[in-house]
Write a structure and sequence with these properties.
mainly alpha, 5 domains, 3-stranded parallel β-sheet, two-stranded antiparallel ribbon, 23 helices, 5 strands
Amino acid sequence: MARCVGVEPCTVVMDLEGTDGRERGEDDTAFEKQSSLFALAISDIVLINMWCHDIGREQAANKPLLKTVFQVMMRLFSPRKTTLLFVIRDKTRTPLEHLEPVLREDIQKIWNSVPKPEAHKDTPLSEFFNVEVTALPSFEEKEEQFREQVQQLRQRFANSIAPGGLAGDRRGVVPASGFLFSSQQIWKIIRENKDLDLPAHKVMVATVRCDEIANERFGCLTSDAEWLDLENDVQAGSVLGFGKKLGSIVEVHMEEYDKEAVYFDEAVRKAKRQLLESRILNLVQPAFQKNLSHLRTKALEKFKTGLDQSLESGKGFAASVRETTESSLSEFNQGCADSVIKQADWDYSKILEKVRRDIEDHALSVRESKLTELTNHAKEKLRKALVEPVESLFDAAGQTTWASIESLYKRETQAILPEVFKALSGFEMGSEFSEEMVSKLRDYGQSIVENKAKEEASKILMHMKERFTVVFSHDKDSMPRTWTGKEDVRAIAKEARSAALKLLSVLAVIRWDDKPDRIENILISTLLDGSVASMSSSASSGDPLASTSWEEVHPKHTLITPAQCKSVWKQFQSETEFTITQAVSTQQAHRRGNGRLPPPWALVAMAVLGFDEIMMLLRNPIYVFLLFVGYLLVRALAVQLDIGREFQNGMKAWVSMLLKSVVPNI
């Protein structure tokens, strides 16, 4: 211990033997730890001499020493800002700005790993120490530069207690008169503390050497050709016997470690072996996971293929899923067991659960697809069975139309159910699902009928005119009606309009029950009978068709509202009026055509007065023949020119037509 010459303020230097000195033997490590702690406790600045190549090494860089000293110092002494000046000797070409962060990080890690008393549990490193780092070149290689930088380092100690100086915050400073007593008490406390009895030097040597051997074996494994081939193979697909091959590779390198580390401290050797084994397992585990990933994909593909084949063979869906799932999971479990190595207790239960979920998801997807296909097939079959018959029933609409439609709907729906139940039995879904599906089919059947009814209702005017034309223009035997003048056009028109009105009443609402309604009566009394029947009732109750809904009919079942019925009927009347007028005109023309013969008295007069001419014709057959030929010629001409029809339009029209037809021919 000595005072520094030429350094102000007064600075005392205490030189301690190195932590790896040979003066006290390899086992006497307690004193060096005690002296180090003593220096930290009484000094404002502690210079720690460190070889550049020791940075980053566990033992050679004094990490165990610092860890223990930090721990004891926090327990024995209160915080005081001591400056730790790390002097890196024999500096290499590596810049200091690269070495300093590594060293600071190591110091911080040591501080964080030290168990701290409750009082200093959250105390940062900066509360106890101010870490500084400097570097010196090799004395033997660069003596002049070395001396120059040492002189610069010496200058840093000038005014070290000034604010921002090297001596820290100077808390807990002891006066010079009490320094001796204070130092004695500190040394006494340190000597009585047994926590500074640390492992011997041979343990440190074993630690360093076993680390080197472990690193060498790990490096050999990473470049092992057999391991690299196995790693490449597993990237391409699952490897048969993966666990046996990988376990053999790991075992070879672990045995090599055991051979080289057998003569070092047993506890250290085993600890480092565990670390090496952990590093190797961390290295090879991604390949294990990759192999399991391939097995997972393979199991899912096997399930998909097996399920498709089983379903194609006609086996039930649920039974096919059970058998295929069992087969796929069994193969996957076998592959996983084959991939595990004896050196590790790797658990593949999580990926097994993922495989189960994959299979369940695919089975659910296929089931939904099959059920959708089954439902669509049943719906299409039901649609074909209902659409055309319903359309035909609406075309021939009458009082029993909706009863017939309901009967058809029930019959066709019931007919399709056995096929549906048979198909559903293979899914083993339970009665509730079957009932739900049957309910959906029934609803679909009703929607077909209702949509068809809405479609026909949207064309009600056209249907009414067709119905009117059929009844008005054809007789009871469905033969075209000839208007000879004997028919009652008014009665026939009323009958035809009544038939059209009944069609309107059928398509006005949807009737899914046998409950009677008054729609037909209301329409006939209001529209067909006209104001004669409705005037008395309208006086008290108003127009029954002046509404947007029918009595006792749900709005969703209304196809044509009362107001719409009234509007349609008015348009229907205007568009069929011409047909009735034409029939009346035809009757009148027919009557005029039948009235062209002369009266009976004229015929008698013609016979009496023309008796001589008649007898002459009878006595001369040639005249009769010529007269007959002339009749045939006139008859043929009349038929060709349709003289009868033209004559119905008047004499002038007939003469005009005759001139246009005969004169050009002449």
